[in-house]
Amino acid sequence: MYVKMKRNAALAAGVIGVLGSVSSAAVSDTVTFDGDFGGFNVSGGFHEFVDDGIGNTHLRSVAETFGMEWWTDRNDSFLGDYTAHDQITLSIDLRVDTLQFFGQDTTRSVVVELRNSRYRESIFQYASVWFVLDREFSTANNSEWETFSVTFDPNAVALPEGWGGYGGSDDADGPVLPDGVGFNDILSNVDQLVFSTLVPVERYPFTNFDIHADNISISTIPAPGAAALLGLGGLVGARRQR
Predict the structure, then answer these.
(1) Cα dihedral 82/7/99/214 (nearest 10)
(2) Which class is 2-224+234-241 in CATH?
(3) Which of 101, 124, 146, 212 fits a 20 to 30 Å CA distance from 136?
């Protein structure tokens, strides 16, 4: 199921706070780029912290590159054993000023990827599972802030609907997980979380990016029966204007 709904930043922060208070075992963290990177790294280029004039600070990044990445391998709130939880939500707020190829507006994807370096195989430095949050990310479609999020059951063995795998030899339909490795195996030891404009193994030309990012969030809900609320796919994706 994929839904789009309006929201505001204050409401979202409140929801995350409520989810985080469900259980002492729950995890809730939001990187707000309020003057620091919160343990995240960003693709090379020019970066600045911008005050929006109403007391909120976010990160602006300007770069010429194949794709933008916001990633962490050191913020522990976003790393470790995801399978210790029944349900997890990951999200990022993004806004586009410029997304162009040779001076012409273009589109890119927004992707979240969870990597596990324990499953190095052949030429692959890690194995991962990934989900495309949007395939029409552009200046025209995203000139206003929008929240991109996905909610999933980290204990699913098979890839939930909409998810892809990476780290095994490619088959005719694209990248796959290594043989014998399940969705939950990857999520048992997440050592890198990545939001990006890059779908694994797809090729991209050099592109001009001027993108704003804010509120990279994780929240977990260790509530009995949570997976049943998500349906057979164990998945809810969302795009929301803030």
Answers:
(1) -50
(2) mainly beta
(3) 124
CB-side neighbour CA atoms (13 Å) of 84: 14
Backbone angles phi, psi at 145, to 5 degrees: -60, 140
Q: How far apart (Å, rounded) are the C-alpha atoms in residues 98 and 212?
A: 10
Dist. CA 127–CA 40, nearest whole Å: 20
The tens digit of pLDDT for each residue in 10-45 reads 333 333 333 333 233 677 999 999 999 999 999 999
Alpha-carbon distances of 98 from 162, 177, 220, rounded to whole Å? 28, 34, 33
Tokens in use for 60? Answer: 């602006």
The backbone torsions φ and ψ at residue 118, rounded to the nearest 5 degrees and listed phi first, read -65, -25
State both tokens at 80. Answer: 């470790």
**Tokens matching residue 54:** 């109403």
What is the domain partition of the chain in residue ranges?
2-224+234-241
Q: Give the number of other Cβ atoms within 10 Å of residue 77's Cβ.
A: 18
Between the alpha carbon of residue 110 and those of residues 48, 118, 184, the distances in Å are 21, 25, 23
Distance separating alpha carbons of residues 91 and 12, to the nearest angstrom: 11
Place of tokens 């909120």: 56
pLDDT digit string, tens, across residues 41-74: 999 999 999 998 888 899 999 999 999 999 999 9
Query: How far apart are the C-alpha atoms of 151 and 90, rounded to whole Å?
Result: 7
